[in-house]
Specification:
Layout lengths: L1 H12 L4 H7 L1 H10 L1
Length: 36
């Protein structure tokens, strides 16, 4: 659930749309966003 909390904040920072993240694999970006 914490992932949803940082989603909106990171979405603005990331140049690519959220749709692309889902295609590549949300789980792959989960640890990166949490660690960032």
């Amino acid at each position: 659930m914490a992932f949803q909390n940082i989603l909106p904040k990171k979405r603005e920072e990331l140049p690519r749309p959220p749709a692309e993240l889902k295609k590549k694999g949300k789980k792959k970006f989960e640890p990166r966003r949490d660690g960032n």
